[in-house]
Amino acid sequence: EVQLVESGGGLVQPGGSLRLSCAASGFIFSSYWMSWVRQAPGKGLEWVANIKQDGSEKYYVDSVKGRFTISRDNAKNSLYLQMNSLRAEDTAVYYCARDPESGSYSIDYWGQGTLVTVSP
Amino acid sequence: NFMLTQPHSVSESPGKTVTISCTRTSGSIASNYVQWYQQRPGSSPTTVIYEHNQRPSGVPDRFSGSIDSSSNSASLTISGLKTEDEADYYCQSYDSNNLNYVFGTGTEVTVL
């Protein structure tokens, strides 16, 4: 069974930093692109970033470029999102997500999410 | 860059059929696959349709997807509505220009 378990969310002040982690199990982690998707309270879904199987390619939504860094450790079956210079508008539930093997630029499995709140 | 526009909400009675549209604002809807995700209140999203019209295992055949190049839109149809279908539904595609995934604005489905 595919499982994605996020951790690391919490309350942080504007300008602060936070590192999210996602522990993957139930599949060969190193064979899949992985993504982070966020959802602000009461709002829709927004794709944040994704990373290739070997970490050699990474892509970001414009609003987080230069502030967020996606990374992975295939030996630990883990995905990360380092978030710096956080703003109030980054407040959201952050979902770890797996891209399917088909390469269809979509998501087939989602984690349960971790809440990040940016507030003084 | 393009957006995917959905109706804010739709409602229908149990047993009826609803269709949710997802209109691409620029570029061809057929140029990249469209997916549909269901998000029940308080839960994570799940995939109900991928690659325009494919159903993951476990998703009932009451759910179907299609695209229409003439209207540059995708559609999710849910037939034989059940109360368990009450959820938010999001379409999603890919922007080959900026290499970003694009989500639709979301549609709240209410089963009266």
β-strand amount of chain A? over 45%
Oligomer: heterodimer
Report how far apart the termini of chain B are.
37 Å
The proportion of residues in beta strands of chain B is over 45%
Biggest sheet record of chain A:
7 strands, mixed
Fraction of residues of chain A in helices? under 10%
- Helix and strand composition category of chain B: mainly beta
- What's the SSE pattern of chain B? EEEEEEEEEE
Number of helices of chain A: 0
Number of strands of chain B: 10
List how many beta strands of chain A DSSP finds. 11
Please, how many helices of chain B? 0
- Which overall shape of chain A is indicated by the principal axes computed on the Cα atoms? globular
pLDDT averaged residue by residue of chain B: 96
Which structural class fits the helix and strand makeup of chain A? mainly beta
Short descriptors:
heterodimer, A: 120 residues, mainly beta, 7-stranded mixed sheet, 0% helix, B: 112 residues, 6-stranded mixed sheet, 4-stranded antiparallel sheet, globular
